[in-house]
Amino acid sequence: MVRRNYAALVRLLVLRLVLALGLCALPVVLVRLGVPNVFAVWLLTVAGMFVAAFTFYRLGYGMRVARCARVLRHYPLEFHTRVSKKGEKWTRYGNVFTVRVSTRGRHGAPLMKAVNAAGRRCWPQGLDGGVWVAGDLPFGGVMVAPDGDAMLFLKPADWDKLAPQRAQAGAERVERAERAGLTQKTTRAWMMRPGA
Asked: What CA dihedral angle connects 7, 12, 13 and 16, to 10 degrees?
């Protein structure tokens, strides 16, 4: 599943770079084909440079796959029978989903923020029948689609609200969460920073 998400990230970046190179090369081709050499034609090159710059800018923010792989090394996957998307927010760095992951018969599932690890903006298909989750939800974790094609990095929507649960976690759980990189307090900006 991690390999598939790395592959999806590479495909996304390659597609954008091909688009950028195509936009930069198109004016040269058009001028050679006889289109008048005017400023408007060369604006395509400027657009291509913006696409390339945006692609490199987003590269760091789309590298959540490595972060998810770290969590998966320290936590096993557990099946949760329900996931409900409560909201979605568009940011220039990617879509941030608000979700509740729960299991039938258990109450009090925390509200989580989720971002697609491979940088996709859309909500993954096939999550209606349940999801695999690795992690400790008061700290965060990883949500994986049953088919393994989509991975979302999770953090509590309200970090301070879950502080009592983390305080009762015990030394072993806290140490495990530290090794997985889940113990830092974050705000909305965790979705935007590569190292968060």
From this structure: 150
Burial class (CB in 10 A: 0-12, 13-18, 19+), 98: middle
Token pair for residue 79? 């099946």
Predicted TM-score (pTM) of the model is: 0.75
Strand order from edge to edge, sheet including 111-116? 78-80, 131-136, 140-144, 151-156, 111-116, 94-102, 82-91
Quote the tokens at residue 68. 């998810």
How confident is the model at residue 192, as a pLDDT? 41
Farthest CA pair distance, the chain: 73
Q: Return d(Cα 124, Cα 115) in angstroms, integer.
A: 11
- Cα–Cα dist 166/107, whole Å: 17
